[in-house]
């Protein structure tokens, strides 16, 4: 399924008027965490290809790099591209003075927003997420400052990432939350119990990051075999040797269904996310145009209720081995130095 044959439909994200493409593009791996940063010209070409193909919802964060991914996006948005996209970025993980912490105090919120605007070289951020919740600061205080930024025209819509159901409710009472970003895929389904129903009750859009299980649902164990030494995924519990063989069997069963349907496993896994509802937007990341083309082919894959049930029985929460977040107990100290900042992001 080539990109040229796929029509990328648009959906409403949340209840405040934001409209995005039904599938977005996660930009983290272009600059951080998934091995060495990729070349700016290649990544700008990929971003321009995505926009030209109809995928206009772009996702970044000030922590990716840190800062270098936003700078990359700023370059890619030149020449009239900015007017064609819906741009999301995030704040909340600070690296000031060699210290790493989660911050949601008003002064930091404002400073982070101003810095992102400067790096992106834009006047207004379409969707601004709190990347992680600062439990030392009442969420009402953080959202209060974000509300001011909306009123000042520096951001259009407010989002939360990896927030609990109760935090989402409290935040939404101060100012409407447009979107909640969370990890949701065939093998990361813990959000289905409380967070997804809460978002739907409140009319909040759902943005699914890592919808391909950080690449595992695309190629299975081959992913782990080819990771570079500075790719943090090698430390994820699900990719460790004690869990990998079991999880590979799950991938093999997903792959069998994909072959039966005449699509790739990544298209099947993305289609499963799309079939969760029109309020859900997956944002698979990639650094290759060929993979991007394959990913948007998922929009053309139709699943029957029986196929959905079969997929869910294979990849139920009880069947997947290992947690979804980073485990540092197995990582050597040298690797932790290389991957500085990931504790805050993934624990």
From TrEMBL:
Highest taxon of the lineage: Eukaryota
Keyword Cell inner membrane in record: no
Q: Which Pfam families match?
A: Aldo_ket_red
Question: Which keywords accompany this UniProt record?
Answer: NADP, Oxidoreductase
PANTHER family associated with the record = AFLATOXIN B1 ALDEHYDE REDUCTASE, ALDO-KETO REDUCTASE YAKC [NADP(+)]
Query: What is the protein name given in its UniProt record?
Result: NADP-dependent oxidoreductase domain-containing protein
Annotated Gene Ontology cellular component terms: cytoplasm
Q: Which GO terms describe its molecular function?
A: oxidoreductase activity
Chain ranges of the NADP-dependent oxidoreductase domain: 27-314
């Amino acid at each position: 399924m080539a990109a040229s044959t796929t029509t990328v439909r648009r959906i409403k994200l949340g209840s405040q008027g934001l409209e995005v493409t039904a599938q977005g593009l996660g930009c983290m791996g272009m600059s951080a965490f998934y091995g060495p940063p990729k070349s700016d010209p290649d990544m700008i070409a990929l971003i321009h290809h995505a926009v030209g193909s109809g995928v206009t919802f772009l996702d970044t964060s000030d922590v990716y790099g840190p800062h270098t991914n936003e700078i990359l996006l700023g370059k890619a948005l030149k020449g009239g591209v900015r007017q064609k996209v819906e741009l999301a970025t995030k704040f909340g993980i600070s690296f000031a003075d060699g210290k790493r912490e989660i911050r949601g105090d008003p002064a930091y919120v404002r400073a982070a927003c101003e810095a992102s605007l400067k790096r992106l070289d834009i006047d207004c951020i379409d969707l601004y997420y709190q990347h992680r919740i600062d439990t030392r600061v009442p969420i009402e205080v953080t959202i209060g400052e974000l509300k001011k930024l909306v009123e000042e025209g520096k951001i259009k819509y407010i989002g939360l990432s990896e927030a609990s159901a109760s935090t989402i409710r409290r935040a939404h009472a101060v100012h409407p939350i447009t979107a909640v970003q969370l990890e949701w895929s065939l093998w990361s389904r813990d959000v289905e119990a409380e967070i997804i129903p809460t978002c739907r009750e409140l009319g909040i859009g759902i943005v699914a990051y890592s919808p391909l299980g950080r690449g595992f649902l695309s190629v299975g164990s081959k992913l782990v075999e080819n990771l570079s030494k500075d790719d943090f995924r090698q430390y994820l519990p699900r990719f460790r040797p004690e869990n990998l063989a079991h999880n590979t069997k799950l991938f093999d069963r997903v792959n069998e269904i994909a072959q039966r349907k005449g699509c790739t496993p990544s298209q099947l896994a993305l289609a499963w996310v799309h079939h969760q509802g029109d309020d859900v937007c997956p944002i698979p990341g990639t650094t290759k145009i060929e993979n991007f083309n394959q990913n948007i082919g998922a929009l053309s894959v139709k699943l029957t209720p029986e196929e959905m049930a079969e997929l869910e029985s294979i990849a139920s929460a009880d069947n997947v081995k290992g947690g979804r977040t980073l485990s540092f107990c197995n990582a050597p100290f040298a690797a932790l130095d290389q991957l500085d900042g990931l504790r805050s992001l993934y624990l």
